[in-house]
Amino acid sequence: MAITKPDESWWKTATIYQIYPKSFCDSGSKGMGDLKGITSKLGYIKLLGVDAIWLTPVYQSPMVDNGYDISDYFEINPEFGTMKDFDVLLSEAHQLGIRIIMDIVVNHTSTQHKWFQSALGDKNSPYRDYYIWKDPVEGAEPNNWNSKFGSSAWALDEGTGQYYLHLFAKEQADLNWENPSVREEVKDVIHFWAKKGVDGFRLDVINLISKQQEFLNDENGDGRRFYTDGPRVHEYLQEISESVFQKYGSVTVGEMSSTTLEHCQQYSAQDGKELSMVFNFHHLKVDYLNGDKWTKTPFDFIQLKQIFNHWQTGLNGKGWGALFWCNHDQPRVVSRLGNDKQYRIESAKMLAASIHMMQGTPYVYQGEELGMTNPHYTDIRQYRDVESTNMYQIMVNRRGIAHQDMMAILAQKSRDNSRTPMQWNSTKNAGFTKGTPWLDLAQNYPEINAEAAIADLNSVFYFYKHLIELRKQVSVITDGRYEDLFPEHKRIFAYARQNDKQVLLCINNYYGDEAKCTLPDRFDMSKARKLLSNYQSETCEVGGQNQVLRPYETRIFLIESD
Length: 562
Ligand code: TEU
Hints:
- Residues 18-419 form the Glycosyl hydrolase family 13 catalytic domain.
- Its EC number is 3.2.1.93.
- InterPro entries: GH, GH13_cat_dom, Glyco_hydro_b, O16G_dom_2, SusG-like_C, Trehalose_TreC.
- The chain is an alpha/beta fold.
- The protein has 15 helices and 22 strands.
- Helix 5 (180-196) runs parallel beside helix 6 (233-248) and helix 11 (386-398) runs antiparallel to helix 12 (403-413).
- It is globular, with a radius of gyration of 23 Å.
- The model has no long low-confidence stretch (mean pLDDT 96).
- The structure holds 1-O-alpha-D-glucopyranosyl-D-fructose.
- 1-O-alpha-D-glucopyranosyl-D-fructose binds at residues 65, 68, 105, 148, 168, 204-205, 255, 257, 293, 328-329, 387.
């Protein structure tokens, strides 16, 4: 079905597929993916059954942070193709009924952007005030804030002796949103893409755009409390939303770094004044030891359930969240919370079920639907990500961490874990490129690949397809309230979703041993119908109140009132 008119709430029963173009499909032999490659795979995406694609940045960029450093918002990076290639992708996707969501990065620009190039070294440039400049304090950085990629968040402009702020790499300078001209430029950018016909926007680190203007030293942290969910962020979002998003009926999803439920209730409030929905990352920090990502530690299962409970109950009726395990910044979930060897297929399906049955809009990151794993690199030269290479230097050279220990941490935490090329088939380089891939593939591609998955009705791929269909068929998945049934259980994560007519139960064993639970009597299991599970079904009838789950088993039941 082709898309003809905007439907305000289509995204509440939708699933969105994230594409990281550099690693998706190379139409030639450059070794990196491109727009034509994506267009050639639209049939595959359609088969999965998703409603929209979120395309991570394809704009002109020096690619220090793989496109999150934009040097021209109105041009396509030639390495990805041309504007014509983009238009073809958009129109072919629309013909298949697939919407396109663009990634908008407006907390910062590349230092190669013409605004920054004009501002650098020239206090009189009309663009100087587009960025954040401060005088040195006692001959050093203006304050002690740290960049998210390690080291100071300030870099020196030698021409003027002032420092500019960069919350990410030093090649990504933060924009000064206090300046109304910056906000007008941002509107122009979004307007340009909306006018082209794109259906929505994913807004990169959008809750960092408003900084407290005192720029104080942070005695207890890295500075984030002075710019996260900052003083004018809601005002700015309302301004952009009113001038562009609402006009075009765009779906919007904001990436919220280190945010709070209260702020997210407002960002995604149902009055539609700011954004459609939000990403938060609290559930993906359960394997950070004392909040520090650069550690290797098992995940905290009880905390994981608490976080889901907090967000599922807190957003219900107030806002809307994105449901996700994977993206281009996160390791592969099957390697992270599942078992990517003996129970790869079972655990990939169980993890999928356990978030797809929640309230929100699920996002599937390329390859997740195949149960793709981390690559388990053994050589530091295999890593490409600016965050990983920076952190290796800092941890090994400055903090004295042993090389082997840092390699183990990177194998668990590096963003490159999810950026390995998409595994299409069992031929050389998994059919990703005819050239030399920009990043080494995971070596398991002869077994784990799209072609094999499509040929096997029991594959992870069809399980995802089924989950995506269920969301459209069973209304309680969209509107039911959430209840965690066993918050203290050490192995089972089970929750109920309920509305006036239906109860949905999603019961998951997160471990490699058998696990048991007894469902409360108020759920009449004699009336339950099994919707889906990840073990062959002859032996898994519904069962009664007592449920015995096999390793990484998931069971989804529906009870409907007469
Ligand atoms: O990421 C924002 C962000 O803060 C994290 O995902 C971050 O990469 C990670 O926590 C560091 O440990 C967004 C983009 O998704 C990411 O790819 C970009 O590098 C970043 O913004 C800067 O644009």
